[in-house]
Design goal:
The structure holds two protein chains of two kinds. By secondary structure, chain A is mainly beta. Chain A has no helices and nine strands. Chain A is globular. By secondary structure, chain B is an all-beta fold. Chain B contains no helices and eleven strands.
């Protein structure tokens, strides 16, 4: 089972920041928080990941609480093309073992509206 | 690089037929995996491989077989298709030095 809890759906106005929350209260010390998104019926796309520090890249920012039990993905200026299902996943960063597999939940369907 | 490629894009089978979904990557990734996605659901892991000659089961392996004879290819075999296997199948790959997995475009399978 997925180790995360996300809202089923969210709306965001175009040009505004989209803040997507994720709860992962049982996260282990060696597990990272990963975010992927799936646009329409395409294959999922990696967005960002972090361990305990806040992270930022060209796509988004990731804010992880100090106790690491929750996080927020921030899309600073959402566009219509950001409409997608967003998945929050916790995993160890080791593909050499089964622990590194991505286990997907149902994610949050983000709708960006004009 | 072509990335992760999957063939065919669409397939219709009759119950009991067998077929192989092809997945290939040209990034020299050791790790490859297969997922299925049913309507309105997240992806579920079927099988994965951490290198040539090594495969293991995921969450929903029943009804599917895999093998990994080369680094590049990771085919998924349905031995006797059932309507419950109607789904979209995604293949993905990665390497130990990378954090992201790269997903293919998917194969849409319908079993009648």
């Amino acid at each position: 089972d997925a180790k995360t809890t996300q809202p089923t759906s969210m709306d965001c106005a175009e040009g505004r920041a989209a803040n997507l929350p994720c709860n992962h209260s049982t996260i282990s010390g060696n597990e990272y928080v990963y975010w992927y998104r799936q646009i329409h019926s395409q294959g999922p796309q990696y967005i960002i990941h972090g361990l305990k520090n806040n992270e930022t890249n060209e796509m988004a920012s990731l804010i992880i609480t100090e106790d690491r039990k929750s996080s927020t993905l921030i899309l600073p200026h959402a566009t219509l093309r950001d409409t997608a299902v967003y998945y929050c996943i916790v995993r160890v960063a080791n593909y050499r073992s089964g622990q590194g597999n991505l286990i997907f939940g149902k994610g949050t369907k983000l709708s960006v509206k004009p | 690089n072509a990335g992760v490629t999957q063939t065919p894009k669409f397939q219709v089978l009759k119950t009991g037929q067998s077929m192989t979904l092809q997945c290939a990557q040209d990034m020299n990734h050791e790790y490859m995996s297969w997922y299925r996605q049913d309507p309105g659901m997240g992806l579920r892991l079927i099988h994965y491989s951490v290198g040539a000659g090594i495969t293991d089961q995921g969450e929903v392996p029943n009804g599917y077989n895999v093998s990994r004879s080369t680094t590049e290819d990771f085919p998924l075999r349905l031995l006797s298709a059932a309507p419950s296997q109607t789904s979209v199948y995604f293949c993905a790959s990665s390497s130990p030095g990378r954090n992201e997995q790269f997903f293919g475009p998917g194969t849409r399978l319908t079993v009648l």
